[in-house]
Amino acid sequence: MGTTQLESVPEPKYWHLKTVLSEALDSEFSVGEILPNERDLAARFGVARATLRQALEQLELEGRLQRRRGVGTTVAPPRMGVSLGTGPHTWPGGSEDAWQPVDCAAAVPSAAVAEALETGRDEAVHVVRRSRVSNGRPVAAELLYIPRSSVPELSGIDAPSGAARARAVLRELQRLELERQENAVELGSAGANDAKELDRLPGAPVLVVTTRFVVAGRTAALSVATYRADTCRLTFGDSGGVEIHDGPQRQAS
Asked: What is the 3-state secondary structure (H, E, C) of 98-146?
């Protein structure tokens, strides 16, 4: 490869380098491909390694690159798409649902969750844990809180625990007539458990999507889904809905 010298620009040198690198990722590299080492990249673009590191860090924050221990810096797959718009309301666990059930347990939720569910402070609820994977990497983790009153016919005989129990709870939930669902999105930081599930460091930026499922005017279930911030793109459409796109030129799925 030849050497590409950067022209004099008013913006920070690393920022211009980020743009040049981004164009190279689009034209020269494929998803999962390992980038040359920092010394070779710095020589190619005629910059100091400190400048290169700043540009690489910015591309990692934007979800274009992944740094994998023992592997190096690789080209990240496209951002995952998930719609939070104003389309038809559906229960989790349907045929189009991309989430995978992990397990289900009875637990007393936090005071904030109990208040949203309108359950007693010491009342245990079903807590379904689910995960979402895209291109072989974990991108989201969810806790779905369901009061026992929402699934009164649930039996522990056929599905006493684990993923089977989670699926049984979701099947019972789908018997209810969903009135509406309400979404809220906020920026947060990954706690220890979320960081472990999402393969990130504690404190890494995440998007927390809270969904309230309403039946007959009451909260029948509450979902708290934590997404890796480097895998999502938020846009606001004319309808007022929120979508998480998988890339600038792609439509949400």
From this structure: CCEEEEEEEECCCHHHHHHHCCCCCCCEEEEEEEEEECCEEEEEEEEEE
Placement of tokens 């309230």 in the chain: 212
- Starting at the edge strand found earlier in the chain, the sheet holding 100-107 runs 100-107, 125-134, 137-146, 218-228, 205-215, 180-189
At 60, list the tokens: 């990692």
Query: Which tokens is 114 given?
Result: 């109990």
User: What phi and psi values does residue 247 have, to the nearest 5 degrees?
Assistant: 170, 165
Cα separation, 218 vs 223, in Å, equals: 14
The answer to whether the beta carbons of residues 80 and 243 sit under 8 Å apart is no
Give dist(CA 236, CA 215) in Å, integer: 26
| Residues 6+ positions from 119 with CB-CB distance below 8 Å | 109, 125, 147
Q: In Å, what is the CA distance from 155 to each residue of 150, 152, 191, 242? A: 13, 9, 33, 37
H-helix or E-strand spanning residue 185: strand 180-189
Q: Which one is predicted more confidently, 178 or 245? A: 178
pLDDT digits (tens, 9 = 90+) for 6-50: 555 466 888 889 888 988 888 888 888 899 999 999 999 999 999
